[in-house]
Specification:
Elements lengths: L6 E4 L12 H15 L4 H12 L7 E8 L4 E9 L11 E3 L5 H7 L2 E4 L2 H7 L4 H8 L4 E9 L2 E10 L7 H60 L8 H31 L8 E5 H12 L1 H6 L3 E6 L4 E4 L1 H18 L5 E9 L2 E9 L21 H4 L7 H11 L3 E7 L3 E9 L13
Parallel strand pairs: 9-11
Antiparallel strand pairs: 1-5, 2-3, 2-7, 3-4, 5-6, 6-7, 8-10, 11-12, 12-14, 13-14
Helix pairs in contact: 1-2, 1-6, 4-5, 6-7, 8-10, 10-12
């Protein structure tokens, strides 16, 4: 009879003694060491594991993911399957908090899901489960990759059959994880450093290019005025001055985004929680006022649905950054003469905020890029509109600092919607200060 538990956790193994395995398994584990010593790439190691161990246990898919953002989320790295259609693809990101992976990463225990269809019925909000079930996978085993006591990644093994993995299979996979953890961590860090260097180089080029043209134009306009070419203050002068103001505001917005990023990356942006923040007056109204020129420029109709005298617990300064970014994006990427709808409500023990705009939206297969640092969506319509990919990443960081969740939905060519929720009250492990 199959195990009645849909999900199980197996205690962490400090060291797996390979003498407990049959000779052929011991030989394969030793071969893993050989491939690691040969400095094979991460993808080559994963492909080797699939080909080598697939015949000794039910295996239709092997995958690798890494823990990022100080243990806040997991990013899928590579998968090898014996079928072609992958729905859970490299680059997929998942927040760890409130997921079953949290138990694996916090405790170091292996996780076995015996029936993914039943698990999905229990946890319908799990996007990763929904995608893996679409591939035909019915059971999975997950082992943490541990280096010096720190859980740096996850090794997945999956089958199209339910109840495919017993304790012996788990022990064998733990032995594999033990052997590849250090090599995987080192190789991934090298790849991450290379990618970081590339991204930062591109960022510097972007900043130089974006600042050069507006500043040069400002100088030209100023020289025209200083040279007396426009004479007294006329309507034409007012137009020119307004153009200068608009370009200056663009620069200020750019600088603000990079300052926010620097504060986040440097660990300076930590929440100072206030218990009774007047959300509409202290946050929403300020964001609307700051962005009013952008709204008027595109003649966008703004509607706001916010509970009167709504009091919430949050860091008002950080929450203002989130509202400015979400509302600013709605104006930037929304249709001219379109609409933007903002909805704020307190539901049970959570604050929920939604910003909806008419506009081009985004493809569903690019949703996972939205909240990643420097990542921009690659569509012809969105490439026309300038952006850094920093704002939404900052939103994600701030919302997670409040123990919340942020997500995005879209109907391509019609609308986009960004929403986040934070618990009320905020858990006690965040710092608090009295409201001044």
């Amino acid at each position: 009879m199959p195990n009645s538990h849909v999900i199980r956790y197996v205690p962490a193994a400090a060291h797996v003694d390979i003498t407990e395995f049959p000779p052929e398994i011991r030989a394969m584990l030793e071969t893993v060491n050989t491939h690691i010593a040969a400095n094979d790439s991460l993808k080559e190691i994963l492909d080797f594991l699939f080909e080598t161990f697939g015949d000794h246990s039910p295996t239709n898919r092997v995958a690798l993911a890494f823990v990022q953002e100080c243990g806040k989320r997991v990013v899928a790295y590579h998968a090898h399957a014996d079928y072609n259609k992958l729905f859970l693809k490299p680059g997929f990101t998942q927040d760890i908090e409130d997921s079953s992976l949290e138990n694996v990463i916090r405790s170091g225990r292996a996780r076995i899901i015996d029936d993914l269809q039943v698990y999905l019925a229990v946890r319908p909000e799990s996007n990763s489960t929904r995608l893996i079930v679409q591939e035909g996978i019915r059971s999975s085993m997950t082992c943490p990759l541990t280096v010096n006591g720190k859980h740096v990644g996850l090794l997945f093994r999956s089958s199209t059959q339910p109840y495919a993995y017993d304790d012996t299979q788990v022990r064998m996979w733990q032995a594999v994880a033990e052997r590849i953890s250090q090599a995987v961590s080192n190789a991934y860090q090298i790849e991450e450093l290379s990618e970081a260097n590339r991204v930062y180089t591109e960022m510097l080029g972007f900043v130089s290019h974006e600042l050069k043209s507006p500043i040069a134009s400002l100088v030209m306009d100023a020289n025209l005025m200083l040279g007396g070419y426009l004479g007294e203050l006329t309507e034409k002068q007012e137009v020119k001055i307004q153009r200068m103001v608009n370009k200056s505001k663009y620069l200020l917005n750019l600088v603000r985004e990079y300052i926010d990023l620097a504060r986040l990356e440097g660990g300076e942006m930590t929440p100072s929680l206030h218990r009774e923040v007047r959300f509409e007056e202290d946050i929403l109204t300020q964001a609307i006022d700051m962005l009013e020129p952008q709204r008027l420029e595109k003649n966008i109709e703004l509607t706001v649905d916010c509970e009167a005298d709504l009091l919430v617990e949050c860091d008002p300064n950080l929450m203002l950054v989130v509202l400015i970014n979400l509302l600013g994006n709605a104006y930037k990427y929304g249709d001219e003469n379109g609409t933007v709808d903002v909805r704020i409500k307190r539901r049970s023990s959570r604050l929920e905020v939604t910003v909806h705009n008419t506009g081009p939206g985004f493809p569903a297969d690019q949703r996972s890029k939205l909240f990643r640092r420097f990542s921009r969506l690659d569509t012809p319509e969105l490439r026309k509109r300038k952006g850094t990919g920093i704002g939404l990443y900052s939103c994600w960081r701030i919302v997670t600092l409040h123990h919340g969740h942020i997500q995005a939905r879209s109907n391509l060519g019609e609308w986009a919607e960004f929403s986040f929720s934070i618990p009320q009250p905020i858990p006690d492990d965040a710092p608090q200060v009295p409201l001044a």
